[in-house]
């Protein structure tokens, strides 16, 4: 008489991916939960766009940024500089060898899962609410980097910082978002603000 192997429960294969997804969701949500700036910035003090501070050096990595002669530039109204951009970088009068420390706030108008992407050339690092969400820090050609899912707890202004450098040649810096239930699109200029020093 041939003994038959006991059959595995047909439920087991179906439970494995659910269990893995649940573990990933749990660990990710805890690490990427975001709350708006506290206190919220005074609406009367907010200015359009993001504040810029520039350093002029040929960096190879965002991690090389060092305190040095910082030049305050005109605000950047929108992070929408497409692949293959040429000419002066951001709001400077220089076409290359530019590093930018871009700061301000971004308005996230609803709670839930948000996703961000950054097209850059060269390196970039993005923090939201003090937490790093995108890190593509080295010299590279036009390249898209994605954030993990961001769990936004409530609507409001969130602190945003973008550290970016362009070494030579063409350049790019474009920020995309996908709100809960919305389409992936370039972040509109009205979503940015800063407080003038």
Give an overview in words.
This protein has one helix spanning 11-32; strands at 33-34, 46-48, 50-56, 71-76, 80-85, 98-108, 112-121, 124-128, 131-136, 143-146, 150-152, 156-166, 171-178, 185-186, 192-195. The chain is mainly beta and 197 residues long. The radius of gyration is 21 Å and the shape is globular. Residues 5-9 and 11-31 have low confidence and may be disordered.
Structural topology:
Layout: H1 11-32, E1 33-34, E2 46-48, E3 50-56, E4 71-76, E5 80-85, E6 98-108, E7 112-121, E8 124-128, E9 131-136, E10 143-146, E11 150-152, E12 156-166, E13 171-178, E14 185-186, E15 192-195
Parallel strand pairs: 1-11
Antiparallel strand pairs: 2-15, 3-4, 3-6, 5-13, 6-12, 6-15, 7-10, 7-11, 7-13, 8-9, 8-12, 13-14
Short note summarizing the structure:
The protein is mainly β and 197 residues long. It is built from one helix and 15 strands. The chain has a single domain (33-195), classed as Jelly Rolls, CATH 2.60.120.
- The CATH topology annotation reads as Jelly Rolls
In percent, how much strand structure appears in the residues? 35-45%
Describe the largest sheet. Answer: 8 strands, antiparallel
Number of beta strands: 15
- The separation of the N and C termini measures 87 Å
Shape: globular
Mean pLDDT level: 85
Rg over alpha carbons: 21 Å
The arrangement of helices and strands along the chain is HEEEEEEEEEEEEEEE
Low-pLDDT stretches are 5-9, 11-31
The CATH class turns out to be Mainly Beta
Assign the structural class, choosing from mainly alpha, mainly beta, alpha/beta, alpha+beta, or little secondary structure.
mainly beta
CATH architecture: Sandwich
Helix percent band: 10-25%
Number of domains as seen in the coordinates: 1
Number of helices: 1
């Amino acid at each position: 008489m041939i003994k038959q192997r006991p059959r595995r429960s047909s439920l087991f294969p179906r439970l494995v991916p659910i269990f893995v997804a649940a573990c990933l969701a749990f660990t990710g949500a805890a690490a990427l939960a975001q709350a708006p700036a506290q206190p919220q910035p005074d609406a009367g003090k907010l200015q359009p766009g993001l504040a810029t501070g520039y350093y002029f050096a040929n960096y190879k990595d965002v991690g090389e940024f060092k305190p040095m002669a910082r030049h305050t530039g005109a605000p950047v109204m929108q992070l929408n500089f497409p692949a293959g951009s040429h000419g002066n970088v951001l709001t400077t009068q220089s076409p290359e060898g530019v590093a930018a420390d871009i700061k301000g706030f971004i308005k996230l108008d609803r709670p839930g899962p948000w996703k961000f992407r950054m097209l850059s050339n060269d390196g970039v690092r993005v923090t939201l609410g003090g937490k790093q969400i995108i890190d593509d820090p080295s010299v590279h050609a036009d390249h898209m980097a994605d954030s993990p899912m961001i769990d936004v707890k409530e609507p409001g202004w969130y602190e945003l910082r973008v550290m970016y450098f362009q070494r030579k040649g063409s350049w790019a810096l474009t920020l995309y978002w996908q709100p809960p239930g919305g389409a992936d699109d370039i972040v509109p200029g009205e979503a940015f603000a800063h407080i003038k020093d």
